[in-house]
């Protein structure tokens, strides 16, 4: 099975994003994991949760990971692996500044069937592979 690069949905709404975010949060709590979750729809945050124990800069981590998923229209973990395999960097190869882009796992773009990219779902707080994986596990993808 290959690395999940995007999530394609039949429909998407703020209510659906709430359900998705809560599923991820419930799974993290079952495992006693402290995470931050952001779901954006058309560049507007529609779900945001940051555990009280996480550093204040988690908003920035979420934003930078999501920027990578939006820019490349594939998961930030997939981009990280592509960069590593091609001996490339975001800054040198694509002129994307590190202050705004972070190629670490944890952000997956959301696509609407027959319509294109609609948003992103991003997790931070674990290892970047675990950030990516908890999204997939919680949403049963």
- Give me the CATH superfamily: Haem-degrading domain
How would you state the average pLDDT, rounded?
95
CATH fold type: Beta-Lactamase
- What does the main sheet amount to? 5 strands, mixed
Order of helices and strands: EHEEHHHEEH
- Biggest β-sheet: strands ordered side by side in the sheet: 1-4-5-2-3
State the helix count: 5
| CATH class identity | Alpha Beta
Helicity level: 40-55%
Provide the β-strand percentage band. Answer: 15-25%
Radius of gyration: 14 Å
* Protein structure class: alpha+beta
**How many strands?**
5
Distance between the termini: 12 Å
Could you say what the CATH architecture is?
2-Layer Sandwich
Low-confidence stretches: none
What is the count of distinct domains? 1
Shape call: globular
Task: Give the helices and strands, then pairings.
Layout: E1 7-9, H1 14-30, E2 36-41, E3 44-50, H2 58-72, H3 76-85, H4 90-94, E4 107-112, E5 116-124, H5 128-138
Parallel strand pairs: 1-4
Antiparallel strand pairs: 2-3, 2-5, 4-5
Helix pairs in contact: 1-5
Describe this structure in words.
This protein has 141 residues and is α+β, with helices and mostly antiparallel strands. It has one domain: Beta-Lactamase (2-Layer Sandwich), CATH 3.30.450. The chain is built from 5 helices and 5 strands, in the order E-H-E-E-H-H-H-E-E-H. It has a 5-stranded mixed sheet. Strand 2 and strand 3 form a beta hairpin. Helix 1 crosses helix 5. The longest helix has 17 residues. The model has no long low-confidence stretch (mean pLDDT 95).
